[in-house]
Protein 1
Amino acid sequence: MNYQQVINQIAGEILSEKVEGNVATYIPELGKIDPNKFGVYLRTLSGESVAFGESEELFSVQSISKVLALTMAFNLLGEKLWERVGVEPSGTPFNSLIQLEYERGIPRNPLINSGAMVICDVLMDFYDDPLKAFIDFVRDVSGDASIHYNEAVAQSEKAHGFRNAALINLMKSFGNIRNPLDEVLKFYFYQCALEMSCKQLAQTFLLYAGHGKHPVTHQEIISVSKIKRINAIMQTCGFYDESGDFTFKVGLPGKSGVGGGIVAVHPGHFSVAVWSPCLNEKGNSIRGIKFLEELTTETKSSIF
Amino acid sequence: MNYQQVINQIAGEILSEKVEGNVATYIPELGKIDPNKFGVYLRTLSGESVAFGESEELFSVQSISKVLALTMAFNLLGEKLWERVGVEPSGTPFNSLIQLEYERGIPRNPLINSGAMVICDVLMDFYDDPLKAFIDFVRDVSGDASIHYNEAVAQSEKAHGFRNAALINLMKSFGNIRNPLDEVLKFYFYQCALEMSCKQLAQTFLLYAGHGKHPVTHQEIISVSKIKRINAIMQTCGFYDESGDFTFKVGLPGKSGVGGGIVAVHPGHFSVAVWSPCLNEKGNSIRGIKFLEELTTETKSSIF
Amino acid sequence: MNYQQVINQIAGEILSEKVEGNVATYIPELGKIDPNKFGVYLRTLSGESVAFGESEELFSVQSISKVLALTMAFNLLGEKLWERVGVEPSGTPFNSLIQLEYERGIPRNPLINSGAMVICDVLMDFYDDPLKAFIDFVRDVSGDASIHYNEAVAQSEKAHGFRNAALINLMKSFGNIRNPLDEVLKFYFYQCALEMSCKQLAQTFLLYAGHGKHPVTHQEIISVSKIKRINAIMQTCGFYDESGDFTFKVGLPGKSGVGGGIVAVHPGHFSVAVWSPCLNEKGNSIRGIKFLEELTTETKSSIF
Amino acid sequence: MNYQQVINQIAGEILSEKVEGNVATYIPELGKIDPNKFGVYLRTLSGESVAFGESEELFSVQSISKVLALTMAFNLLGEKLWERVGVEPSGTPFNSLIQLEYERGIPRNPLINSGAMVICDVLMDFYDDPLKAFIDFVRDVSGDASIHYNEAVAQSEKAHGFRNAALINLMKSFGNIRNPLDEVLKFYFYQCALEMSCKQLAQTFLLYAGHGKHPVTHQEIISVSKIKRINAIMQTCGFYDESGDFTFKVGLPGKSGVGGGIVAVHPGHFSVAVWSPCLNEKGNSIRGIKFLEELTTETKSSIF
């Protein structure tokens, strides 16, 4: 498979069409991004790398970070994690309080905001400095020590995070948060404010394509069984209320962020990251989904 | 992989434990089934067959039939089908009217009751005798002309189908049903009353493992692209409000029915059917899920 | 209090403004009504009568009939009635299935569609010919033997009553309907198709202003205690999801219908009926509410 | 009417039966109250006073205070108040976030927690020291300068108010709170922690029975029109999801608090306060409702 040729062609077609949608604006810092940015990076387990466009430019990974935090928490706590968060698709918009109230403070899955806050709370029980522990993990897996949090974005999230504050207070009222709310929110906001490039993301997510082994050292970071389960959660829950549609169109486990990034993995084969900031009404990158749909169609790489 | 040995072992362990749960009772005919029944049938694309227990005994496939009807409708109508039914997991119990009202008569996906009725309505636009067309399709793919509807079950469904009548009337009020309601319901009830064995189901679902090709003649029945998308829908929507959990535990696309049957497929490799009538509170076979979880763990055949 | 003078003035002002809103169209027969129709009739317990406009023209009373049927059922069954229907405001649009499913087939109150169907079902246990029993009751209380059902409207309701069919099937699935669904729906549709004038309505609702006594013979038809409770239900539930607003603005128990009629009662003093077919988005007569708000303000007759 | 005799008799009967239900425990301070406390105080506009039991003992008025704050805010802001809070019954439990999210941050009415916080926010725009302004108002109307906030209860509310924090953050995310959240919550918690006796409450609520006039000086504090509207809101919204039932049984506008107090008014006639701390599952005083139901039955004082 000549991935470079396929990617050039698909990207070329997509860039030839006018970009639709809008960049996220609820976090002011994100609203400043050029909507025409576009990058792709694909890494195969056999060592091949393919780049296109602004593939090394940093952007706010936002909810993509939820997969990484989940990986740490599942590795540390094992099956007991599922007493505090479910593995079912949410079926409602990503920040809805309705289902959370109905299900008495247990988030439907760890890839929606409420679930990710529970994951933060879990990690805080294991680390004195969870912000450092988290970025150390990301730097280790990505093999890139330069990765960092964007301070301005983190502050911007804090100043506008009233819905997230509502979510965490509601969970606290049901007893599903143990650490001080302010500290959990701070960890959560910084985690969302992680900045990475498509190249760094693709490298990092080889962990998920490669059955839990470190992309470079090939040491086991997390068991095959656990990594398969995380991939399964990405498949059913990775795109908020558009998860079924992404599965239907792209046929790979993946995760999106409101910064316009998407990562997807073909277990046993490759990881791929794409970045384009314009979002559809469900909060997912329009060109990102389009690109991945074409990619799996052209390369016949849907897992189904 | 010695599937027979693995299956014997897993099934032996499962049968050594007391059966939990209850058989479905809302349809009186289903309530008469012996809760200890247990059968397995696995077919590989390479021609291998493995059987265990009551693998050739007929049972009511119930919602498993929804996948077969969807296949016919998607083949006939193509992408226009998705104007009338979605591809998102439902996030609420399988017969809930709440989401259907909220989304103005468009069912979330074709594998919940409301969605399956829309599929029936679609098929009725193409066939004068949809009941005959449906069973002809099943007999053709399964290669077994003896397959039939169970008349007593079909009548039993009609007599107790008030929730389904509520669903179809609600969809009609939003304009999403075109044929006479009584006739759509009749088709739907007969479809659910289809009787098949694990062996027949495994044979039939080679279609989905085998990229849309007839299990015997290898002629294309439906395109690779379409069959992958149906597998994707099974993955995210095949187990009502337990779809995420099945994906998490088993890692294969599949579909359950309240008759206690489950089919799952490993694309490119095999199809497998299991039958055990005792259901958990979400309406899925307890031993069936347990068996498939062990099977994919032992054979490392999760698609993730 | 010179009611005639007050009513002339208020009605004059209202008619001087352009009529807003739209007549109900979901029942085709109702869509044919001239939107400029306007009638008022007020009757005091002391025998005074005041008329304005088309006060003797017949119109479709629609949901106003629910109060009359409730009165019969409460009188017959007593407190046991509340095992099958509640007395709480609905808090959701008038034909919503959501709350009905959540509350397992027990309608919130007898003045929403689902509740009124339960009332129909109750009456059918007492009468061989409930349609005759119902109209006999209305003719007796109103003192007008010419009152009748409009056959064209009743047929029109039947042909478009899919939401009502959804509601009754849902209640049946929870066991809260005992008689054949077709017959209950037929009774319900005819009841809604009752035709009365403002004059007839005002006369009839003296029953509610007059503590349960027949407006002409003064014999007790229903106990003081029961009639006060029916007035209380009108106060909290008479205007669907606008009941709080009507109570806030008008301050009298009342009931509206999508035919554009409203009746209200001032216990111990008077009953009043107003008719203007243009409805707001909540299904209540715009001019009707406006008129009554002005009337209670001018005459200081709010019960609060 | 010999109120003393009637009240003695009803209270005697109620006290002869074993008290059911439980005192509120979600605020630890309230959980310490003796469940057998019982007091009644009735004041007529003509100057009569009737007391029974612990009618002069202070208790936590909790949500009853919402009526007093609403009165101040409606008086200050007029009709513009209804742009920020509705007048419809809530139809869901008193602290539900579901409806608030669905209706985009506009509380259904000012007598549920979310609505009362909006009222607090409104008052903070008018007063530098809203806590002082509020208690000054209460002291003035009640004619009792000794009335105060219970500091321990206020602190207890703050420490356990996670649901209220969720509510206010959600409203803030929709832009319906203007002042700093901590300060609004503080005002709200102190307001709930107001301590009054049945005697003080009955005296204060003569304002509502007496058409807006000061109980002692008879000066107009709020217009007749506004006080009638506040009574109307109490009628439809005063008892959370039991408002319809209270209206049905008692037939007077009223307001309950989880401290076990209830006040009710018969416009033009009397105000009455009753206190008994044991609550039903909807959070309203069991004996309090029972007492008022008997009182209006015996004295025929339902407004309907």
Note: Chain B touches chain C through 14 residues (CB under 8 Å).
Protein 2
Amino acid sequence: MQPELAITIEVAPAFHDLDPMNIVWHGHYVKYLELARCALLQKYDYDYPAMHASGYFWPIVDLRLKYVRPAAYAQKLRVSARIVEWENRLRIDYEIHDAGSGERLTRAHTIQVAVDAVSREMQYLCPPVLWQRLGVQP
Amino acid sequence: MQPELAITIEVAPAFHDLDPMNIVWHGHYVKYLELARCALLQKYDYDYPAMHASGYFWPIVDLRLKYVRPAAYAQKLRVSARIVEWENRLRIDYEIHDAGSGERLTRAHTIQVAVDAVSREMQYLCPPVLWQRLGVQP
Amino acid sequence: MQPELAITIEVAPAFHDLDPMNIVWHGHYVKYLELARCALLQKYDYDYPAMHASGYFWPIVDLRLKYVRPAAYAQKLRVSARIVEWENRLRIDYEIHDAGSGERLTRAHTIQVAVDAVSREMQYLCPPVLWQRLGVQP
Amino acid sequence: MQPELAITIEVAPAFHDLDPMNIVWHGHYVKYLELARCALLQKYDYDYPAMHASGYFWPIVDLRLKYVRPAAYAQKLRVSARIVEWENRLRIDYEIHDAGSGERLTRAHTIQVAVDAVSREMQYLCPPVLWQRLGVQP
């Protein structure tokens, strides 16, 4: 059985994330996803510095966000991230919930591919270092 | 025949849009899309201030970005935006191309729905003001 | 004796705060200052929502940042904020230190003035609500 | 006589630069300054890529902004930047004016120092490459 490749972090929107409607501007959610993604990868010792040390960049090639309800200043949010693909590409699914009511506010995913840091060539299979760190089989 | 509901703007990534790989951080593209979307809506006199004056907010409810090639500092980019749905929701499709080579770097779409500014209720049909401004029939 | 009008928060730079030199882009420190300022004002029940409820906006009219050493990805930082003027204007001084070594990385200040939310007139004396919340005499 | 080491660019605040008061959030002005600074340095063929090619980083060590009047969505602004020191450090002074009325909205300065890209040592005298590019004598 595969391990549970997931994490949940808490985030509270800052004043500088608000727009004139007094809600979080839709583009700032990309930062919240990144905070959860980095926390998740850090847990498996494969966050950005470790990625680079392993000889790969992992650019985002696909990003999707579905906004169900807005988020407000200082609202306690739970951002969950879960790795759901790791063979040919790294796909992470996200959900953002209100920490108090549990209501779901946002769903999202990101897809990353490995790029060799020297040749700059995209890898059609994820490099084994990812599987080792995550403790998974491709 | 429907009018051509489209625009193309030029954008050149700023230094503050770059990440440690010396390319534009993926989240900053959301700003480029917004610049094109606002220019397009301005052309039809239905940009943010006009939206609010008409009694509606138009939050983004769906955002998708596909990154084909990275963008660099000061690279001349063309961001095209085209309105492709306006009956129940406002869907805009985007493409970002290198202005020199014409190479496509990014594809994206956003979907917005109208929300009544007073009742805060989501509208399942776009308000007629949108169709009037765009010169379209639902 | 005046109370200690200060707070210290912890911040760790996110990947999206880094620039091509792999350090925090200088403009992002404004966000760290704001996080500390809001936490400090929240402690005295006079954060942004309370400011607006009291009938005043408090725009920043002066901002200064002195950068002594750079900050890196995920580096544990302590951001301290202290209210040092409250009679005619609200001045807050800041220091950012490395949490591990205690080394000072950045010094800063912000100055805010009260603006009446209805008349939009700038107040040359801070409104008494500020003093009451802070528990100070002008 | 020294040449006029100055430039003026036009900027119009984007929707994503606005805060809940419907004005530009104070931290976003740092981006407007950077756009003017980069345009100015580009004029003298010493923008970021050229700085790095010359073997130096030029981090900002001091930033000051004085906000006189707020800026609104799509307001046409003129951002002027002028190099006023280049011997020991690079100091640039900025002014932001409303393009229509000519009213001054913001004053600012930035100070940069040269850091050797290899040794990471701060230079107490600006490297001669700066003077050559600017056509000035120290």
Note: Helices of chain B lie at 29-43, 48-53, 128-134.
Protein 3
Amino acid sequence: MTIKETWIAYIHDLQDRICTVLEEADGTAKFIEDAWERPEGGGGKTRVIANGAVFEKGGVNTSIVFGEVTEAMRTQLKIDGHSWFACGLSLVIHPSNPFVPTVHCNYRMFELYNEAGEVMDRWFGGGTDLTPYYLFEEDAKHFHQTYKDACDKFDLNFYPSFKETCDNYFVNFHRNNERRGIGGIFYDYQRPDENRDVDFWVGLAKSCGNAFMQAYIPIVNKRKDMPYTEANKHWQEIRRGRYVEFNLVHDRGTLFGLKTNGRIESILMSLPPTVRFEYNYQPIAGSKEDELLQACLHPRDWLSIVTEEEKLAWAKASNSC
Amino acid sequence: MTIKETWIAYIHDLQDRICTVLEEADGTAKFIEDAWERPEGGGGKTRVIANGAVFEKGGVNTSIVFGEVTEAMRTQLKIDGHSWFACGLSLVIHPSNPFVPTVHCNYRMFELYNEAGEVMDRWFGGGTDLTPYYLFEEDAKHFHQTYKDACDKFDLNFYPSFKETCDNYFVNFHRNNERRGIGGIFYDYQRPDENRDVDFWVGLAKSCGNAFMQAYIPIVNKRKDMPYTEANKHWQEIRRGRYVEFNLVHDRGTLFGLKTNGRIESILMSLPPTVRFEYNYQPIAGSKEDELLQACLHPRDWLSIVTEEEKLAWAKASNSC
């Protein structure tokens, strides 16, 4: 198999596996697939789930798109070549229970060709990030630890570096640099070189892509049956407003799609199902809502934080000595 | 009074008068004022109304801002001068009843000074546009006719020209050029010259600003007690999603504010209170919802349309001959 074929096969396999585990976690709703074609070349498989027992709205999409390098790509994206190819998976899941976090992930490969059709350039990008509405430190630790483990097999510098890139990307710069959520990992423009070949980067993407189930599903199962109030739902919808603001004002992928004739419904499936915008809404200082807001304003090193549970476990262990 | 003083006095008087009539139309809720200052110079009076009997969320804001021309203004806005001044009124009203349309208006003056503090350039901009969720042709006609009357006193070419500018500005270009609503008037960069002095342009702004009450309030009073279903509300929230998309992706004023340290809460008060984003939502062909969508996709010359009521009135009149 060529690299392209390997990558496409992986992305489609990952889409199938993720949809299966999400359907299992939901227990009621099923994904519906919309296959679409792009007039300029390629197409995609958009899979959406809606009004489930757990997932209010979500999409797990793959796309394989290609074409000639246009003048707009040359000037606006500084892409220099004859033709290009891009293939990736992108998902956003919005649960209905405000104690279950929203999650986003994206893994993609880009290739650039010369007139002879030879690969001139190739790069990988990807990441997964969590957007909770209430903060459970143990969930944050579990999520980050899972991606640290997935990255550590490749390079011990990756997790801290990709975590910082993530914290600095998903930012509502117009709101005092408030982050969309509590981060995860994000990397882009990773090119094979003499030290790290294509297989290395495909391997990293597979490791991180596969980690999604382990990173997210246990959190869903732990929180999905927690009772919640109208006030909790209200806060979730306020925070979903910030999600909309980030995606429509700052997200490079969304804006690129909107401005280059992408498939609108597949791009905007990322927007939350129900949203509230209230004038100057501020959570009460010291409340659970404020605790989440503070975590978004001040990114933390989750893996150096000791939880109350851990303290208890250690206290027990030392008492029994 | 200087031109600046005349303009400021008018804008503040208009804010007072508009808030008064909107409170009367609502019958329950009152505007709350947040006065704010801008560190770089000036400030504003943000007046918001929320959870009223008629108005679910709204803001009627004035601002008077000034400062030195920054490098960013020079390069990004092509503004060449030593210092500047801007003053305007901006309002957005989101009623709760889906049969009452959302309305937006904005009237502003901009001045540019040389190092000696002399006026180098001055221009006026403004407009008012209607965003209904259901189409009542008689309301559309009334709204457009009111602004045509306000413009015709100054130049018979203004209404058709400003109507077209409005139709071409409030557009979700990423959705097949779907308009945000059914338009109104919009003009910008109108500079005094030997034929039309400052008083002319102030006069036009006053005529259009004053027309707001006559254009909007009768529609509110006619529709506010119409019974509606959950399905009507659902459709309103879907359409409000389009309002969010336009304001965050395309609106120059919003994006300029967000990217230049404007007062975020005053800028984003324009966003609707509750919003829905559903994957690939399409109204049923031929439904009342689709009728509105078609009006947004294909702007019409409202003043050349004859309503059923008018036809009946004419039929009666000719029968009685």
Note: Residues 198-223 of chain A form the longest helix (26 residues).
Protein 4
Amino acid sequence: MRVFGHVVGIPEGSEFENRYTLSQYGVHRPLQAGISGSQDEGADSIVLSGGYEDDKDYGDVIIYTGHGGRSQVTGLQVADQKLTRQNLALALNCQRGTPVRVIRGYKHTSPISPKEGYRYDGLYRVDSYWQEQGLSGFVIWRFRLEKIHEQLATDTVEEPPSIYENSERIEITIQRIMRDTKLALSVKEMYNFECQVCQIRILTNAGLYAEAAHIQPLGMPHNGPDSIDNILCLCPNHHVMFDFGGFSIADDLTLIGLEGGLYKEPKHFINPRYLQYHREHFADKI
Amino acid sequence: MRVFGHVVGIPEGSEFENRYTLSQYGVHRPLQAGISGSQDEGADSIVLSGGYEDDKDYGDVIIYTGHGGRSQVTGLQVADQKLTRQNLALALNCQRGTPVRVIRGYKHTSPISPKEGYRYDGLYRVDSYWQEQGLSGFVIWRFRLEKIHEQLATDTVEEPPSIYENSERIEITIQRIMRDTKLALSVKEMYNFECQVCQIRILTNAGLYAEAAHIQPLGMPHNGPDSIDNILCLCPNHHVMFDFGGFSIADDLTLIGLEGGLYKEPKHFINPRYLQYHREHFADKI
């Protein structure tokens, strides 16, 4: 049975001599593959061991490159990666909020990698995923991982009964964190909280609800701007689909993957550069 | 102009002699009201000063009682609170992810309150809101506030260009954190990822997407169980509406606030006790 979350008895920081002991303790079962997972359940663990030229390790944030397309002989990227198998497993972690164990190995080129052996570095959530052209020129799938900090601050008086405290703590985590910005509200108001794809308006006890979707995402590595020409007003359903490759938008605002076109207020300029970025990174096919 | 987030030059932990200086520095403008905000923009700050018998302060988590319904003479609750004005402002913070400044005052009955004067204790997000019968017997609105921890962990090698680092950091925050649990997936699979309200299925590049909605929420103070009889399979649109009082469900599964009924698989037992909890706390009217 695949174990998601911490493995009982193996605290964060535990060190292992080699891939064999790592596997024996159930921290990362496969002896060779970097991603342990299935495309039904998601990924339970990954090993960072310097295999991919495109990986980036900032400590709390990791840009991890998917699996596949490399020559077994030279280790070089020789074909496009696909969103299948272990890559699809990591995408499911993102959509479902399943945490993944991260292990850093001695071959991994980062100042915080262990000098020898392997170290279990705790749980990360898969914050987002996308495709891009890698350094090799072939398509790679990338996953932004963010560390899950589980401890509460020290000024907590009486710890409330937390969902993290019960026996299922390792299964429970964080999913789809949305960032609302200063300009988000102005775009929602421009459309009177109506979805630009389906024109639905969500009514709640506090009034109308819509979501602001950044076309080229905020934050590294995308670093899209928080500007009105990069923001759409969407209902939650179409926001999920837009973020997870369910549809994209052509320069003439025709929808790709859905019928029809994007509704746009005349005064709302949408920058085609950001639409192109979305198509290249988040559409089903480049 | 209402300032959301930190006030420039006023770090967390700053102390103030009285409500007048608190107001002068722009940390909390009103001299008497506990909530500073408007029902268009949201709330920018609140003061905890022991006014409400129902408040709870766990440090990182605060259960805050809304405004209204108290006698000016005795200070006792003498009428129902409504989701209007400053209470509606705090509800908007929840829906939009706007952070609220929290100030603790000397009158507040918590071990971490200052002995004298007022202390700015940083930014909190409004995690959820609901109504209930207060200790007085009247309806009160309650808001679960959770502290926003802004610092990254010390093992970060090279801090990535974070959205928290630019000049708009105070506007940007976290919204609608969803918790997926062990049993969530089994309920989604039972419905083949089809929404129990509208039967829509959301298609993404990683397959079908649905959300698991806990009827009586997990975590304090609701402490609903993570069990299949407390979980629904919903599309993101109906999940938002369900969490924010857009509709509720009668014991016979008729929808309240929407046309029609909830679709249910014969083998899926939904516990009427949790439906009742939802109606009492999240429906528009008790």
Note: Helices of chain A lie at 19-24, 85-96, 184-190, 236-243, 272-282.
